[in-house]
Design goal:
Two copies of one chain form a homodimer. The first copy, chain A, is an alpha/beta fold and about 350 residues long. Chain A is built from twelve helices and twelve strands. Chain A binds a DNA duplex (20 and 20 nucleotides) through helix 2 and helix 4.
DNA sequence: AATTGTAAGCGCTTACAATT
DNA sequence: AATTGTAAGCGCTTACAATT
């Protein structure tokens, strides 16, 4: 229907004006008489004009493109955030590259280079286990990191921001929640992928804090973390299985993620251990799995939508206003109580959702 | 560390050669002496050169960019495909825009325009309920549609391909599967979003075929489809609830998707109806939900990985070889039998995975 | 013949000059 | 003063010419 490729020169020629005028009309800028504006506008439409973003980029050095880097969109927690961020950015005129790194530093690096060549206006880092300080983000491009561990936010160069929960206090609260429900020997269950168990890790640190606050002492046998290389659910199940086979006693499990919690549930279920009574479990992320699973899994709503909102708001601020200060947005969370922490479970398979 | 912006002119100048030579070195093309090649290569590296894809695009009219359009990445079926496609394309040097339309024609259209401005080399359409023939894809850009209904593939202009299951035969087999398991009154349950119940719809058509083959007759009351506007799980649950409230009898449900099946399970469970015995259910997509749910849901593995493979292979073929023929790849599927079609369910909550 | 350089072109933006 | 036009520049590619 339209000629293969019509440029503003073609329009200028057909309309008997200069390219500057065409450009001004098309961008609603400059002083152009209403008549010309109208006429050229219609002409462009009629000629089937499609602007070339590449040329625009070369002219203005803006791409209206954002790179979203995430370890794993197949995880609902991240995919929710990413989807929300993408949608909102789109409404602000930005199109997103969504890059899945699978927590592989090599891929992360390759992607980063690619995005630099593509001249993205900004970056969103959703999750990722490595310390942010270690990342190699060029200081020229503003970015916001969501739910990312970062020990030394003071070192950051460039304009960036952090959005996330207070993870340390969250893990603390999860552990205390189990303690309040009568648990004495609470295990800390985490998928090994990329995480290091050290007090600098806020997740682990929060667990330690809670033990302290609740007058319990650390038993290293209850730290369930190992060098497996499988899905976090399978790995978690294996870790729980190994512990139980070694007769390590536990009456509570703080699981770093609902997939991890699900693995624990599956193993306990297979062993006919009364979940919610003999062993209580709390997961994290409020994924659909936690709701659908029987028994349904007590979990933490981390406010993903809010995170996405804040991330977009802050990023656009950084891009447009070129602020250089370090921002730090903390999003509230809340525990959702379900069957895995509710004592004797009545009438299991057929009861209604909570 | 590197100067804010170094171009091939800077390199040419610093290396005392022409830009053509630099370009040739950087792209491994043309005849350049090994010595120069080596020297300029190192120089570029050292100067921290980052090529500008925008300029490259303008020069060559290739972007190494693919647009992936999908209705809903929050659905595992699509997110699996999209993730796989993206990963594979990336390995072939292409970066992807992932566009979520939510089945909204307006958004789909806006995205399409955006992608055209961005000059994508190709398009992947993963899912989507509207008929492909109706879409407004410029004939200049090659594309492949995955799992998309298309009545008249003969009308296609441009270079394109279809990848998917034989959906009609799949729905047929699902229905027959229930019939073979003794079901007499089999309901067809589908989320209303975007689907029209007409024989042209292969899903519905396959159901009709099966009724015919199995010697049953169509009862319109057993077509569960309605103008709700909620998640497919909730909608399915509501549809089943409504039917049961109207005392419509059914002993089997063919659900178009595992989320839909899950909704049915939830409603039957709430009513203490024996799933697998009194009512058998088969879902579709082999999502994690179907496995995790109790009772676990019989479903269909549609070969998503294979679909992604084929889509990438075919698309790259279209892009590189500029073939104009219409390709049509059919991927095999297989039914996975689980508890919802297995008769009396023993020892439900604690039994092991199948 | 092998290697390297010149210059136009890709499709825009925008400072500034020129016209009305 | 309001409107419009000129021309350079953004960073590449590539046909072709020029040099060794």
């Amino acid at each position: 229907m339209s000629n293969p490729k019509v440029s503003i020169y073609d329009i200028a020629h057909a309309g008997n004006v200069s390219v500057a005028t065409v450009s001004n009309v098309l961008n609603g800028k400059g002083r152009v008489s209403p008549a010309t504006r109208e006429r050229i506008s219609a002409l462009a439409q009629e000629m089937g004009y499609i602007p070339s973003l590449a040329a625009k980029t070369l002219g203005k050095n803006q791409t209206y493109t954002i790179g979203i880097i995430t370890p794993d969109v197949s995880n609902e927690f991240f995919s929710n955030i990413v989807l929300e961020v993408e949608t909102q950015l789109y409404e602000h005129g930005y199109t997103s590259y969504i890059c899945n790194t699978g927590n592989d530093p090599l891929r992360e690096n390759k992607y980063m280079q690619d995005l630099m060549q593509r001249n993205v206006d900004g970056l969103v880092l959703a999750g990722g286990t490595s310390d942010l300080g270690a990342s190699s983000i060029p200081s020229s491009v503003p970015y916001v990191a969501i739910d990312r561990n970062s020990s030394n936010s003071s070192h950051f160069k460039g304009s960036c921001a952090l959005v996330g929960n207070d993870v340390r206090s969250m893990t603390h609260d999860m552990t205390c929640f189990l303690a309040q429900h009568g648990c004495q020997r609470i295990a800390f269950l985490i998928s090994s992928k990329g995480w290091v168990i050290a007090p600098e890790n806020n997740r682990y640190g929060g667990y330690l804090d809670a033990l302290n606050d609740c007058g319990m002492h650390l038993d290293k046998n209850l730290i369930l973390w190992g060098p497996h290389a499988m899905s976090s659910r399978t790995e978690a199940r294996r870790l729980v299985a190994d512990s139980l086979s070694e007769d390590i006693e536990m009456d509570g499990i703080v699981a770093m993620g609902d997939r991890v919690a699900l693995g624990a549930v599956e193993e306990l279920r297979a062993r006919d251990i009364a979940i919610g009574t003999d062993v209580k479990i709390i997961g994290m992320d409020n994924s659909p799995y936690a709701r659908i699973c029987r028994p349904s899994i007590t979990t933490v709503d981390r406010g993903t939508k809010r995170m996405a909102n804040e991330a977009v708001r802050v990023l656009l601020g950084l891009i447009e206003k070129k602020r250089i200060s370090v921002l730090n947005v903390t999003v509230p969370y809340r525990i959702i109580e379900r069957e895995t922490t509710m004592g004797p479970i009545q009438n299991l398979p057929f009861n209604v959702d909570r």
